[in-house]
Amino acid sequence: MRPTQHPFLDFFAPTEDVLIGDELGNIYYYVVEWPSAFDVSRDGWHGTTTKVASISVHTQQICALSWTPNGYGFISGANDNLACYVEIERILKQRMQHPSERDNHSREGSNTLHQGTLSKRRNGSRRTWMRDSMESYVYGTYPVTKFGPDGETRNATLDPEDDVIPVRRGQEKHCWKHDAAVKAIAFCPWQDNLVATGGGSNDKCIHFWHVGSEALLATIVVSAQVTSLIWSTTRPEIAATFGYPTPDHPYRVAVFSWPSCKQVGAIAWSGGPRALSAIPYPKGPADAPKGSRTAREGTIIVASSDRSIKFHEIWPEGSKATFGGFGMLGGSDILEGLDGIEKEGDVIR
């Protein structure tokens, strides 16, 4: 919830944070206010899109974007063979704490007061007290005032052109090098700081990383371009879809256990089409046995190069595996300790 961008009303509105990547390697961070149908009919307000940050940590086309589970950052993959972890909240808060270090965002000739900057809207219909910065909109920390057409003072709305935050190369927290474009990224839903990335045709591997320390935990060689990664929500397993295989093989979907990295399931496609992308689907077939893993976890939907969409039941049945705990971070006692996973050691007498 953030202060609405409605020009005359004051309330907190639900918003969505959106990342968009382009062919030049730029990433744009937007906050979208999307009112309900009732609000639209009542107020005539259709919402707005506010550009928060322009992020330039890559040099080639963006191929993958994934928010962290807590929403405080994201990992981006690109054709420059890099996966970059950006802590966007840390960057915003640093700028809030050190406004003097901003990159000359104040416009020449603007009249800045302690509460904000008086800025003329494009349509010339009103003047508005603007927030000191984009961070104050994202976090709602600065009290400001605006004037409606009746002269009444109200809370401010933020000019969408004002104070877009630049994030440049070197401001990312981690940058992981691959041997090909990074097309697949998946954060583990049940283990903090565990993320998997997949490389393209010259990489042909699934890599597992510890986000907090940048450490590489494990690598699975799959002999194919990795196009999607999907963690199971009920087992310590991960599914992968494959594009171009090298050497040639028919498998386009496989499931691996974690942290053993053993293959526990695979699906072959006849005729040689490639799996282009996949997403989880929370529902299974109507006739799925009640209590089965498919009924609990659903299926995946795969887009294929033969112009078809395929639904697959991929999660194998079997004895229940242990979630979390020891060994989930590559067996490193140090990394597990950093993440609060404690185990009893030998007693020294």
From TrEMBL:
Q: Which GO terms describe its molecular function?
A: anaphase-promoting complex binding; ubiquitin ligase activator activity
Q: Which region ranges are annotated with the description Disordered? A: 96-126
Magnesium keyword on record: no
SMART domains for this protein: WD40
Q: Which domain of life is it from?
A: Eukaryota
A GO BP term, please? positive regulation of anaphase-promoting complex-dependent catabolic process
Which controlled-vocabulary keywords does the entry list?
Repeat, WD repeat
Q: List the Gene3D superfamilies hit by this protein, alphabetically.
A: YVTN repeat-like/Quinoprotein amine dehydrogenase
Q: Which GO terms describe its cellular component?
A: anaphase-promoting complex
Q: Which InterPro entries match?
A: Cdc20/Fizzy, WD40/YVTN_repeat-like_dom_sf, WD40_repeat_dom_sf, WD40_rpt
**Bias kind Polar residues: ranges:** 109-118
Would the keyword Lyase be found if you checked this record's keyword annotation?
no
Basic and acidic residues compositional bias, start-end = 96-108
- A matching Pfam family: WD40
PANTHER family linked to this entry: CELL DIVISION CYCLE 20 CDC20 FIZZY -RELATED (PTHR19918), MEIOSIS-SPECIFIC APC_C ACTIVATOR PROTEIN AMA1 (PTHR19918:SF5)
UniProt name for this protein: Meiosis-specific APC/C activator protein AMA1
Read off the lineage from the record: Eukaryota, Fungi, Dikarya, Ascomycota, Pezizomycotina
